[in-house]
Amino acid sequence: MLKAGIVGLPNVGKSTLFNAVTRSHKAAAENYPFCTIDPNLGVVIVPDARLAQLASVVGTPETVPATIEFVDIAGLVKGASRGEGLGNQFLSHIREVDALIQVVRCFDDPDIIHVEGTVDPVRDIEIIMTELMLADLESVRRRMEKISRDVKRGDKVAVLEARLLEKYDAHLNSGKPANTLSIPLSPDERSLIRSFFLLTDKPVIFAANVKEEELAAAATNPRVEAVRAYARTHHQCETVVVSAALESGLADLSGEEAAQYLKELGVEDSGAERLIRAAYHILGLRTFFTYNVRQTRAWTIHEGDTAPKAAGVIHSDFERGFIKAETVAHHDLVTLGSISRARETGHYRIEGKEYVVRDGDVLLFKFAV
Predict the structure, then answer these.
(1) Looking at residue 85, what is its pLDDT?
(2) How far is CA 203 from CA 209, 279, 291, in A?
(3) How far, in Å, CA of 135 to CA of 124, rounded?
(4) Nearest to 356, CA basis, from 313, 310, 304
(5) What is the pLDDT of residues 43-67, one digit of tens each?
């Protein structure tokens, strides 16, 4: 299962947000730096209204949602790349996740210590990203040194690797994260880059953390606007507004109670749910559905997976003996109201081994082993 790591400076709301998305109180959320030392790991349900809609149409009593893993990682401080604070430990934990959610404090509260003394979201982002880029630069240069003899001998793989490393060295040294380096890559080059394990090559989302009473007007909050502008300009990524304290409290309520409370605040939906869906998407994950007499279920695949790959998520025998997949788009099935109607109108299709599964497909696999 792919993992999204929650990162940021100490005391910005990381552990509180982790408790909200995991609907638990696993992570200590105290008003002092480094109250989190060892990472907290939680399995998170991916909110998807399509699941209940489909279950209603096909008449199954149970639903099983898709899930991903979130990791609450210790706070990072200036100098972490040189081992300050929990730097080395923090960086090793980041290497183990597949995407980053950087929590950025966008609220004032004299009772909650800020390690830098003042609230400045852009400065805080730059502290984190600078430390990650410095760690990446060190990794790149160590690797260049390691392969230098092979490069001198003319080893083709080493020469190719050295050229890539030089590009990343220059890019990182200019203050830009690895995931914004845009160069045409061959399959061999992509494979090499993955082996570099660069921290700033991971996809990122920014979570702008505001107070509960500031949530409804977050669109005009200057600090939130600054985070969004910085994210677009420097990282080409999304910003999701959350109130970690509010979301942690909502986790103890029923779905109906939480929705009513948000409505009273003038907020349409949960920031934690939007964040989960955004993390699922940037991890390159997509959802297909199956159903039987007992349950309707959401399954997770990677974008671009073929029908046999999707079948293999259910059971390896399904992939090995794949014959065909009967499929209909979720939207079409819910709109039409039944499989029989989907067949009559030509929306129900038979697909073979080359079919690339689309997000929201409802699938029935035929196989023989």
Answers:
(1) 46
(2) 19, 9, 32
(3) 17
(4) 304
(5) 999 999 999 999 999 999 999 999 9
CA distance 216 to 221: 10
Local structure of 6: helix, strand or coil:
strand
Return the DSSP state at 71: E
Helices (H), the chain: 14-21, 49-58, 87-95, 121-152, 156-173, 187-194, 222-230, 244-250, 255-265, 271-282, 307-314, 316-320, 330-336, 339-344
Which of 151, 136, 124 is CA-nearest to residue 7? 124
Phi then psi for 122, rounded to 5 degrees?
-65, -45
The residues near 38 (Cβ < 8 Å, ≥ 6 apart) are 74
- Count each helix (H run) and each strand (E run) in the chain, helices first: 14, 12
67 and 44 Cβ atoms separated by less than 8 Å:
yes
Can you give the pTM of this predicted structure?
0.87
**Inter-CA distances, 278 with 4, 14, 33, 47, 117, Å:** 11, 17, 28, 11, 31
pLDDT digit string, tens, across residues 241-271: 999 999 988 888 888 888 898 888 888 888 9
Residue 354, Cβ neighbours under 10 Å: how many?
8
The sign of the CA dihedral 297, 301, 303, 306 is negative
CA distance 323 to 363: 13
Looking at residue 201, what is its pLDDT?
A: 93
Residue position matching structure tokens 């090995």: 320
CB-CB contact of 365 with 315 (8 Å): no
**In angstroms, rounded to a whole number, what is the distance separating the alpha carbons of residues 269 and 258?**
9
Q: What is the DSSP letter of 195?
A: T
- For 314, the token pair is 């259910």
Cα-flanking dihedrals φ and ψ of residue 303, to 5°? -55, 130
DSSP 149-187: HHHHTT-HHHHHHHHHHHHHHHHHHTT--GGG------H
